[in-house]
## 1
Amino acid sequence: MKKNLLFLILSFLSFNSFSQSENENKITFDSTTYIGTAIINVPGVSKDELYKRVKIWISSAYKSGKTVTDLDDKSGDIYTIVLKARHDAHVVYIKGMNEYDEENSYTVILKIKDGKLKMEIKDWFNLGYQGSYSNGAFTNVKPSYGHTKKTWNQVREEVADFTKDLLNSFSNEMLKDRKSTRLN
C-alpha cells in the first residue's frame, strides 16, 4: 500500500512538472552554433496583440524598424517577421593601443501565434572593420583574417553577450507585468 501511494505521488509530481515545463518561458544560447532562442508563453493574449508588442519592441530596439525588417508576414495561423541587422563589437588590439568597432551581421526570426512567441537569433557573420575584411561566421573558432585568436574571442564574447541581452530585452518586453525568464 505504501509503495502504491509513493508511486502515485511520484507519478503525479512528474506529470505536473512536465505540464509546467510546456508552459514555461525559455531562453537559450548555444556558443557553438551562435544561435539564441527565446520561447515565450503569454496565455490569453491574441497573436494580433502580440504582433503589436513585437512591432513596438522592434521600433525601440533598432534605429529603424523598417530598415531591418526583411519580411513581415501576417498571413496564416503563425505570423512571421524576419530582421536582418548589424551590431558593432568593440575590439581592443595590441595591449589597448588600438581599438575600434567591428561590424557584424545577424538574422532574427520571430514567430507569433496566439499565446506564444518564438525569437531566434542566428547567422552571425563578421564583416570586419568598415567592411575591409571578414573573419567569416561566428562558428569559426579561429579567425580567418585580421585577428589574433584573443581579439577574435573578444568579438565572439561581445556578440554572445549582445545576443543574450537582446533575447532578455525581448522576453521582458513581451512579458511586461508577468514573470520573466533571464539568461545570464
## 2
Amino acid sequence: MKPKASRGNQWLVESRAGLVRYVAANLFSHGYRWYVTGQIPEHKDPHRVDEAILDKYNLRIAKWERARRKRVGWASVRYLRVGRFFLLIATDGAHPFRTAEAETIKDARRTPLIIDDYSMSIRKQIVGSGRGLWRPSIRIKRDTYLQLRAYFLELAVHRSEDRLRRELWNIPFEPYQPVVRQLHSLLRVVNKARKRARYSQIDYEVFRYRMKPIQVFITQDEEER
C-alpha cells in the first residue's frame, strides 16, 4: 500500500518560483546538496517519467522509513517536478541515486543550481565564534543581473521618475537577502547616473521586501483535473 500523500511524498510543484522557495527553505537548509536536473522531452509523458524515477530509487516511502534510513547512514532523496523540468536532490550518505548518477551529480556548495533566472547555492558563512556554517544563498544569476543592470541604466535618465519607480517595484524576483543586495547595488548605479544628469535620487523603498504568498505543491484535486 502506498503511503498517504505528505510533503515527503509530494513531487508535483505549482511553479518554478515555488520550487526555488521550497529548495531554499526546506531542502538546502536540511542538508540536501547533491543534485541532478533534467528536462522531460516533449514526446514523453511526464507522469510516466515520474513513476519510473520514483520506482527506480524507491522514493515513495513513509516518513518513519525515511527517518530509519537516515539513522543508519542512508541519504534522503527528493524528486520534484514543475512542468517538464525535474530535480533530484539528496543529502550526504549512501543511496542508489548517488551511485547511478555519479557522473552527472553536482554539489550545490560548488556548482550553483540554476532554476529559471535564480542561481541557488550553499555558501559558508562565518559566525561570531569563527565557525563556518553552510547556508542557502539565492541570487539572480549573473548574466540576467547584468542584463537587468543595463536595462535600468538606459531607463535612468530617459524615463520619468514615476515610470522608473514602477519598473523597479515590478522587478520579478523575490527578496531573498542576496537578491536584495543585488538590487541595492543596481540602484546605486542608477542613482549615480541620475546624479550626473542632475535628476532626483531614488530611495531603497522602491523595492518590495516581503515575499509573495505562494503555493508550492499541486493539490490532488488540481492534479486530477
